[in-house]
Amino acid sequence: EYYPMCERLVSDAILSQQFAQSSSSPPIACVCAFDHNVRSSGRASVGKITSKRTINTEEEGNGSAAPQVQNPAGLVHADYTKTSAPRRLNDLSNPPKLNDVLRPKLLAQNRKSLLDPAIVQEALEGKRRYAFINVWRSIDPDNPVKN
Fold this sequence. Notes:
Blueprint: H1 2-21, E1 38-39, E2 54-56, E3 63-65, E4 69-70, H2 84-91, H3 103-108, H4 117-124
Parallel strand pairs: 1-4
Antiparallel strand pairs: 2-3
């Protein structure tokens, strides 16, 4: 599965850095993959649904479509700002919304949220550090990213 692979990749990289710097570093509280985008420069792919899966809910009686393929981001950019990063962290400690990619997984695990609200609160109060780390890779092993 893609999300667990990304979580292991980031955890391994962070742990190797922690051991290289100091053995007294606080342990990692959590590495959680929570979102993804599929991007393609192929015009035929853009706008297509990435899977046939829909998320159905009894509350709404309808499904949310799976993510669409997007154009590549043509500029260097940051995904979060000083304002949006804490807001997104807080969002991850709340129950998933109807269109949340992780909703089925969290419901299957009987979890109310991806992140522990107490740990998130400590991070928002400056008692813990947090980072959002993007993992970029080609999902097609026969056609690696070229541009």
